[in-house]
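Hello support,

Our group uses your service weekly, and this is the first time we've seen a run hang past the timeout. The protein is Tm-1-like ATP-binding domain-containing protein. I'm not sure whether the cause is the sequence or the server load. Input pasted verbatim:
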Amino acid sequence: MKTIAIAGTFDSKGKEFQYIKDIIEALGLNTFTIHTGVFEPIFKPDVSNYEIAEAVGMDMGEISAKKDRALATEVLAKGMEKLVPQLYEQGKFDGIISLGGSGGTSIVTPGMRALPIGVPKVMVSTVAAGDVSVYVGSSDIFMYPSIVDVAGLNSISTKIFTNAALAIAGMVKFENTQRVESKPLIAASMFGVTTPCVNEARAYLEDQGYEVLIFHATGTGGKAMESLISSGHIEGVLDITTTEWCDELVGGNMAAGDKRLEAAGQNNVPQVVSTGALDMVNFGAIDTVPSKFNGRNFYKHNPTVTLMRTTAEENKQLGMIIAEKLNKAKSPTALMLPLKGVSLLDVEGQVFYGPEEDKILFDTLRENVDKNIVELIELDYDINDKNFAIAAAKKLLELIKNN
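Update from on-call engineer: The timeout came from a worker crash unrelated to the input. Re-ran successfully.
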């Protein structure tokens, strides 16, 4: 019989957790309870808060005596991050659910993030309707808005809690057991403006017996890709779309952090890298663009996404960053430059066509890439030309074979 872990503050929200526990058990599933509160729980859990603290070498009694909420939250979050994946490996549960406000969410989600992708994870939270990237990271946590506070059983909360319990039960009980043919995996980065390139390369690689996992270069996508590369499951990386560095540098809303472009090089995974969509920074709706950028070249991609053309100086800085990252690579690495444009918008006749900006980007890369570490390949095509896509795919296969 499948088991669902229920994790949360059973001291302050014991009735709410008992409610979903009863629903799940009524559906014929077992429950496994983990108490993440500071004080005594309303019902006896399978895993106590003392055990969570002990996982990171701390004493819960001493922590509760200090009455320091921030300290307690930090210790419990770190303990959950360490203990939850261990409990899963021991076969204690098949999926996990929690309820909470910002505090409860920040305690449980580190443990959820530490679980493998595909393990059902449901977080009912008061902060689920906002920016949840800090809680979800690059994982597959299902964040469910609680609508009302997780504080009591009422006509709204009981409906939300019931739906959440049914959701996790369905995820666990009706798990897809159909087996997909196992193939070596390639990770690829894509944006709307580099889609033709990546689709062409993907088709070629799939014909050669590979499965291509495509990550949308929206910040979260880049983080997820880097994480999966580090996990050791990827044979090669086709990092066509490095645009997330534009947002990291300039202040757009799709940055992937300063570790982007490191995982493949540091984990001996062959990589082909290009300059896809380095012509743009991403913002939200046009009226959300910071006033300091007034006068820049903008393109309204859709009502909620505004693109801003990168300048010559920004392209120089981007070239320096990418060269620095690739020069640290310990894996076979090739950098491919599309000399006629880095995106669908950066070709002659389009709104971001910028031969001067591209020249500075390419010149900076030529001057700063260590040719003893990185193979520099220049092609007289734009990035979405079929010839560029196939060349990139073939080069990656060559690097994988020679590795």
